[in-house]
Design goal:
mainly alpha; about 260 residues
Length: about 260
């Protein structure tokens, strides 16, 4: 009588077992792998490369929490948010969301905002640059059309707002640890930052609350008249004009549409 053949693992079983091995989450491996020691080399290399990629994307987060805590954070993150993109850069896309509900926020409440800011920089670096708006297009608008005009912005443009002074961390990123200003829980001071591309360089600019509100409304598709009315309590007409001229000068706007 021929011996019974062992059942081959299903694709789902094999994928779960491989994930368990790579992420070292302690789950049992019962899917029929006989050579786990061979896979361990790949597993360790896979995790090390992801850890390296996330450290590159979130340099300030790593510096704030420290090397040991950051390693544990990344392990927890990769267990909850398994990368699904072939592009390793995209592995950190959900890290700010992960930090929102992680216990590390009790010690560093500004960490999710800091991560959102750093991810905006990563996104801007990899974004394409479109042809900026020709100023002649603005001169062709009638006074009646200005209230109804809507704007499209460069893919790299983001507005990050936080009740914490996260921009101070960015400005101090090259300072030694003794001079690095890690905020405490009581060090609240709101900041608003525009992230954008200038040719091949990612640029950042701190702006006032009213300008951030106006820019965010326009980026979300609001018409200029509505956006100005919503932010008029914080911005004078002169301030609006000044901010708008700066956006055009920096090449943030790429297209206009009159609804």
């Amino acid at each position: 009588m021929a011996p019974a053949k062992s059942r081959s693992p299903t694709l789902e079983e094999a994928q779960k077992a491989l994930k368990s091995l790579i992420l070292h989450d302690g789950e049992s491996n019962d899917a029929g792998f006989d050579h786990a020691e061979r896979l361990s080399v790949y597993a360790e290399g896979f995790f090390a490369r992801l850890h390296e990629a996330l450290q590159e994307s979130y340099e300030l987060v790593y510096r704030v929490v420290g090397e040991e805590e950051s390693y544990a954070l990344i392990h927890d993150y990769l267990h909850d948010f398994t990368p699904r993109s072939y592009n390793i850069t995209e592995a950190g896309a959900s890290f700010p969301e992960f930090l929102e509900r992680h216990s590390v926020r009790e010690t560093f409440p500004y960490l999710p905002d800091l991560a959102r800011f750093e991810w905006a920089i990563v996104r801007a670096f990899h974004s394409k640059t479109e042809t900026p708006l020709n100023r002649a297009a603005l001169q062709e608008l009638s006074p009646e059309q200005w209230d109804r005009v809507r704007f499209s912005f460069q893919p790299a443009v983001s507005v990050i707002s936080s009740p914490w002074p996260i921009y101070d961390l960015w400005k101090a990123r090259k300072k030694p640890d003794a001079e690095f200003p890690v905020p405490g829980k009581s060090d609240r001071r709101a900041c608003h930052i525009v992230v954008y591309r200038s040719q091949f360089d990612v640029m950042t600019l701190e702006i006032e609350t009213g300008e951030a509100e106006l820019l965010r409304l326009l980026m979300n598709g609001s018409a200029l008249g509505y956006a100005c009315a919503q932010s008029s309590g914080r911005r004078s007409p002169a301030d609006v004009t000044k901010g708008f001229a700066r956006w055009v000068q920096l090449g943030l706007i790429v297209q206009i549409q009159v609804s």
